[in-house]
Amino acid sequence: MLAANGLPQRTSPTLRGRFVSEQLLCKTVPPPPDNVNLAALDMLPPGSSVRAVLEQHRKNPACAACHALMDPIGLGLENFDSVGAYRTTENNAPIDATGDLDGVAFTDEATLSTALRKHPSAAGCFVTKLYQHAQGRKPLDVDAAVIAGLSQQFEANGHRANQLLVDVVASDAYRFVEVASH
To answer: Domain segments of the chain: what residues?
Structure first.
């Protein structure tokens, strides 16, 4: 996940934050404008940090709203370089991996993990994503009741992923196909 959401020469808190927002919290993040050239953003100016470049970028009002959804989360993963190896410095300066997840401050990837686990959208998103994967399609309106029931079971079972998997495959929605009437 870390390498797949980075650039060839440097990390990308924006891409990493987008992944976390969309895949772990089920948020919708708008796509970048067509005129964004990621290749031009790949190299950092000498002596600068990704954080400093992003802070400068967010001063542009056209960019600030979307980047505010992604960058503060992705910065919590800055201790991992572009291929996912752990590091403590960038350009010979200590990495600042502090950030904010919907009003909850974190100081590094471990506290970001705790904030994600406690986030009110995380459990429901996990259930929805697992159900979607099991069904091989995006959930439909008719799936809402099934997902709600699975979410209740997931909470009642102490958020145990192994039990959720059993509950998904044991559900009638997974085991039976509804025949469409013509």
So the answer is: 13-118, 122-175
